[in-house]
Amino acid sequence: MKKYTKIIALLTVMVFVLSAALTGCGGSKTSENTSSQGQTEQKKEPVELVVWSHLTDPEIAKVQEIANKWAEQTGNKVKVLADQSDFQAFSTAAQSGKGPDIMFGLPHDNLGTFQKAGLLAEVPDGVINKDDYVPMSISAVSYDGKMYAVPISMETYALFYNTEKVPTPPATLDDLIKLGKEVGFQYDVNNFYFSFAFISAYGGYVFKDTGGGLDPNDIGLNNDGAKKGLELIKDFVTKYKFMPADINGDMAKGNFQSGKTGLYISGPWDVDGFKKANVPFKVAPLPQIDGKPTPSFAGVQAAFVSANSKHQKEAWDLMKYLAENTGLPLFETGNRIPVLNSLLDNPEVKNNEILNAFAEQAKNAIPMPNIPQMAAVWGPAGNALQLITSGKVPVDKAADEMVNQIKQGIATQQ
What we know:
Keywords: Cell membrane, Lipoprotein, Membrane, Signal, Sugar transport, Transport. Residues 1-20 form the signal peptide. Pfam families: SBP_bac_8. The protein is of the alpha/beta class and 414 residues long. The protein has 2 domains: 48-155 and 299-366, D-Maltodextrin-Binding Protein, domain 2, CATH 3.40.190; 157-297 and 370-413, D-Maltodextrin-Binding Protein, domain 2 (3-Layer(aba) Sandwich), CATH 3.40.190. It is built from 17 helices and 15 strands. A hairpin with a 2-residue loop joins strand 4 and strand 5. Helix 2 crosses helix 11, helix 7 (192-200) packs across helix 8 (224-238) and helix 16 (378-389) runs antiparallel to helix 17. The longest helix has 41 residues, at 2-42. The N and C termini lie far apart (99 Å). The relative contact order is 0.16. Residues 1-43 have low confidence and may be disordered.
């Protein structure tokens, strides 16, 4: 009995020792795994993101400065580089793995070509809150209800007036015509970008907005409203003789800067030059027509993440940071009008009388169509304006021919 008792006791001790040993091995393995995971996290290499930008050099330097703060917080690296390449250059670079992770500051009407080529990553939920932005800016970067870029800033044109000649800006079209006869009124009249405002004021449009996108098969540049607007543009030249039919932007700008004219349509890009030339001027929204605001064309500087970027998570995190922090610096550095409602209400923006006038005009602006078919519009529209203002072709005929040429141009894109 004692013999069996000793054997049992011995077996019990052996089992205990073996269990302890196994437990120790298991604990050691868990400890090693945890340590290994920690080492993996610690050894994670920082990501280097490349940003290409179409902004000016001073603005790019400011974006780099802000991106550096994100880099410090995340342990990653960012290079913001000036870029003036076209779509083909970007496409080639992106597909070869040499393109940027982010394009920052591209005019939104170029996005259609990029989107069609599959180069834009869709904006993930949580990057921005659409309700925080001017609605027009969200439309400018959207296709079929989906966002493929983030709006950064916006621009449009408005009415410059010489304060020594025009104490109070014209509020209506009749006021504009009356003052134009007295002090002179000029702009780049054959440039469709500017003259579109008077076409749209009467109901003309480029492509029909269906609420879910733009319909390139429905062109409204020869409807009754568009033709009425084109007649007004013709009157500016042939009836009121505000400007010659061959006027261009430089001529109109020079005449306003020298004081020969008191009224001039242009955008924020002319502000600094007029200030340096000591021109006594202010800016006001375009005069109302038929009791309604006159809708100008708007451009939005947009930013997108390349669909070919290998660092999507980090790129969108940087994008979110830039969208939240570049608005005011770009306003201060490059006269860029913010797209965030909160910044439009910022005292620094509100108290800038000139840029605030552009912001007011932008509230009623229409984003330039961002679909690829817009490329077929500019040439025929500009030609039609030249024929109309020179009196060579009646408005009806010129408008119908313009639309036919646009349709033919779109057909060649297919």
